[in-house]
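call fold target=N-Acetyl-D-glucosamine ABC transport system
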Amino acid sequence: MTLHETKSSPIKQAASPDSAGWLSAKRKRALIPWLFLAPALIIFSWFKFIPMIQGLVMSFYKVNFNQPNEWVGLDNFTRAFADAELHAAVVNTLLYVVVTMFAAAILAFFLAMLLEGPARHLRFIRTAIFLPAVTSAAIIAEMWRILFNPTPNGVVNHILSWFGVADQGFLASSDQALGSSCCCISGRRCLTTW
């Protein structure tokens, strides 16, 4: 062999660092967030899904706390769907959800339209409207209790007395409790989500 002559042999290509080993660097990087999330996911599953599954299983049994549970199959469901109180509760719940959802959306839309613009006097109104979003729920509940107080000292009853309307038991009356609750929740949702 001369100085200019070299013997060439095929060069073995080195393994890339990403493909070396059973767990590549790319896969390790993708696995790290899941390792951090694993404890939270386990705890969440433990307190969310396991009780749901246990509740579903228990719905097929007559649960006796002093005796073994008795398998009843779908009897619990047939009895529940035949119950008039359940029907009333479902209707009230659906009515409550629909009324509060639409009332809050409509009220929020009109408030947004009202507050549109650069006028100086709107600063105070914007602050007053946003205040419930940062106010404690306990304070807001107390405010609604004062407003809907069934005595003549209640704010709403006092205003209604100007028009000759007798005192109303807003939250104490079964006829008015749903509407009063819808009013409270719609106002709260509107002022905190727009």
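return ok
DSSP finds seven helices and two strands in the chain. The chain has a mean pLDDT of 82.
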